[in-house]
Specification:
With 261 residues, the protein is an alpha/beta fold. Helices cover 31% and strands 14% of the residues.
Length: 261
């Protein structure tokens, strides 16, 4: 009941300007970055192509006092196009998990909470989506590497893709810069909360790629104009740093493959 009360309070204007079939932007954050996430949201509200809705998913467990723990600049943005939603803590998977289920007929654009987004971000993704409506479209993509024996190469050896508008199944959309997921592009196991939290709680990009691969969905680099503009003070807690040091991506790839056999 408390969760419902928080949602009613913070989703002011819910439904206003929402358009089923239009792009819905979804992101998440956590306490270490909650003080700067409003800057990312502001950039998303100033797009050349305005999304029908922007949803910020926050875990109740991480903000037990609800609105009282959120900074005023973020609360001031809520209403109409932008809404704050409350959910269970499923780590990085909060970014897509709930939005995909609540808007099954809309393209879902996921973004990170540590970037300032150029005004053409949504426009570029939608342009690629119109050309390849059945593909996952992303502004930063890696090509999955393989060893001579056919096994998967270490993640750090996967090169960035530099060829836009060429859909391929061996491409991985990374969350950096924005990713557009068309309706029905993934296997239904994408919503198996127990499985994803057991296998790869921090590797949402890899989990989503596995679900796309099972469905036969290709990925395409939307354009070559993306440049990461990180918000000040957000990189000290970046998962990227942890992944590079611990090789966690390689570990999670093995676990995902084993789980889906």
């Amino acid at each position: 009941s408390l969760l419902r009360e928080w949602e009613e309070l913070l989703t002011r204007g819910e439904g206003e300007g929402s358009q089923e079939g239009g792009a819905v932007v979804s992101l998440t954050s956590y306490p270490a970055r909650i003080g700067t996430v409003h800057k990312a949201v502001e950039s998303l509200m100033c797009q050349s192509v305005v999304p029908s809705r922007i949803e910020l998913w926050l875990a109740v467990e991480q903000f037990p006092y609800g609105e009282a723990e959120l900074p005023q600049p973020l609360l001031d943005l809520a209403g109409g196009q932008f809404v704050i939603r409350w959910c269970d803590d499923i780590k990085a998977h909060k970014k897509y998990f709930y939005a995909l289920q609540e808007h099954p007929n809309s393209p879902i654009v996921t973004v990170d909470d540590d970037l300032w987004y150029a005004s053409d971000t949504i426009e570029k993704l939608l342009e690629a989506h119109r050309l390849f409506p059945g593909a996952v479209c992303a502004r930063r993509v890696k090509r999955i590497g393989f060893k001579p024996d056919g096994s998967i190469a270490p993640y750090r050896e996967w090169p960035l893709c530099a060829v836009p508008l060429e859909p391929r199944t061996d491409l991985l959309a990374t969350g950096v810069g924005g990713v557009l997921y068309p309706p029905g592009c993934m296997d239904d196991r994408v919503f198996d909360k127990e499985l994803l939290m057991r296998v790869c709680p921090n590797s949402d990009d890899l989990w989503l790629k596995a679900m796309q691969f099972v469905k036969g969905t290709p990925t395409v680099l939307s354009d070559s104009g993306f440049e990461a503009r990180h918000l000040e003070g957000t990189q000290e807690t970046s998962l990227y740093i942890v992944d590079e040091v611990s090789h966690r991506n390689d570990y999670d790839i093995r676990r995902i493959c084993e789980a889906l056999r």
